[in-house]
Design a protein that fits this description.
The chain is mostly helical. The protein has two domains: 261 residues, Cytochrome Bc1 Complex, Chain C (Up-down Bundle); 140 residues, no CATH class. The chain has 16 helices and six strands. A two-stranded antiparallel ribbon has the order 1-2. This is Cytochrome b. Keywords: Electron transport, Heme, Iron, Membrane, Metal-binding, Respiratory chain, Transmembrane, Transmembrane helix, Transport. It is a multi-pass membrane protein.
């Protein structure tokens, strides 16, 4: 994609370094002179946003780890001491806690952009798969970090989620005890989770390096879904996209800092300001907001599926909702990448986005809550359309979108004509490729 290197060392030192360790050449070819499609919009800036937030999380996490005490008797107090007694500890803790939420906001936007513009299609299948691996590592890291304050929601969230592994046949019990480090959530669990939470961001950074490498082989996708044909279809990454991405990153950081400074606890749960107590169960156990759609899918399976009982079925559905993303490049049978030119697929995609948001809402609610009242039963209790029923409908659509809608639309939908080239899409040339 990028062609021969254009880097030319200007000084004796850079020539000496380039002949032994061409790291400056690598940076130049990857982030300065890298040919980038000239029609990228602001949806493509979230890769840069995610890189910035990964660095924020690693730096703030390292400093917080210097003051955190991973012990069941001291963890909660150590977090409070960081906020009150450590110089700028309140800021570091707020940046780290809110940074996790904004990290997930950015990754969800990044993933939905990839779904809409077909960024998972050939020759970028491995790029997409590495992105899903990063997402899984983020989910694991976020869950482990959520347990560390050792508040009520931390403790009971860890208890509920780790108990899910016990539903796995044959190895479930052993796996759960390994996660616990014993026979219940306790001190060994907290130590293990702290160690893994500290380690995984560096693993994420390594996979991000592979992700960027995989991006630079075929090059960026673009809103039209058309591959680069001539040099006129591209622009150097610097200064065009460094300025554009820099502006978007500053806007996103401004919103993030508004939360970190003025609303530091609004994205958290009030019960986590209560020390963990194994004898007092919260009235409603919920995970962090960015896990709520998958939590709703887990709870939506209340029935046995053949030999699979409801508990195992919920666990399989929850993990399957993420695992299905790994095979998405082969489920979408359409030769057209971008949904700009797939009018029917675009409507199904918008419904899919709405379904994901609605699943998040369902995950935050009690499954027995009634959305639409339809009367009362013999005992005088209200009956009607419940959150659970709504979540089951949404879960069915979630899986149908990948397993039925995308495969079928690839054969039945007639796409719109596409521009003849990326240059034509920017300059308004009316020449178009026929629909396929």
């Amino acid at each position: 994609m990028s062609g021969p290197s254009t880097y030319e060392p200007k000084t004796g030192f850079t020539r000496w370094l380039d002949s032994r360790l061409p790291i400056v050449r690598l940076g130049w070819d990857s982030f300065v002179d890298f040919p980038t499609p000239r029609n990228l919009n602001y949806w493509w800036t979230f890769g840069g946003v995610l890189a910035i937030f990964l660095m924020i999380q690693i730096v703030t996490g390292i400093v917080l780890a210097m003051h955190y005490v991973p012990h069941v008797d001291h963890a909660f107090e150590s977090v409070q001491r960081i906020r009150r007694d450590v110089p700028f500890g309140w800021l570091l803790q707020s940046l780290h806690a809110n940074g996790a939420s904004f990290f997930f906001i950015a990754v969800y936007i990044h993933m939905f952009r990839g779904l809409y513009y077909g960024s998972y299609k050939a020759p970028r299948e491995l790029l997409w798969i590495l992105g899903v691996v990063i997402y899984l590592l983020m989910m694991a890291t976020g869950f482990l970090g959520y347990t560390l304050p050792w508040g009520q929601m931390s403790f009971w969230g860890a208890t509920v989620i780790t108990n899910l592994f016990g539903a796995i046949p044959v190895v479930g019990e052993a796996l759960r005890e390994w996660l616990w480090g014993g026979f219940s959530v306790g001190g060994a669990t907290l130590n293990r989770f702290f160690s893994l939470h500290y380690l995984l961001p560096f693993v994420i950074a390594g996979v991000v390096g592979l992700h960027i490498w995989a991006l630079h082989v075929p090059g960026n996708g673009n809103p039209t879904g058309i591959e680069v044909k001539t040099k006129k279809d591209t622009l150097p990454f610097h200064p065009y996209y460094t300025v554009k991405d820099g502006f978007a990153i500053l806007v996103f950081l401004t919103v993030f800092l508004a939360f970190a400074f003025f609303m530091p606890n609004v994205l958290g749960h009030a019960d986590n300001f209560i020390p963990a107590d194994s004898l007092v169960t919260p009235s409603h156990i919920v995970p962090e907001w960015y896990y709520l759609p998958f939590y709703a899918i887990l709870r939506a399976i209340t029935f046995d599926i053949g030999p699979i009982d409801a508990r195992l079925g919920g666990v399989l559905a929850m993990f399957g909702s993420i695992g299905i993303l790994f095979v998405l490049p082969w489920l979408d049978t359409s030769p057209i990448r971008s949904m700009r030119y797939r009018p029917i697929a675009r409507w199904f995609f918008l419904i899919f986005v709405a379904a994901c948001l609605a699943l998040g809402w369902c995950g935050a609610k009690n499954p027995d809550d009634i959305i639409i009242a339809m009367g009362t039963d013999a005992e005088g209790h209200a009956t009607g359309f419940t959150v659970l029923t709504f979540a089951q409908i949404l879960t069915a659509y979630y899986f149908a979108y990948f397993l039925v809608i995308l495969p079928v639309l690839g054969f039945t939908e007639r796409p719109k004509p596409r521009p003849a080239s990326i240059e034509a899409s920017v300059l308004g040339d009316n020449a178009a490729q026929p629909a396929q």
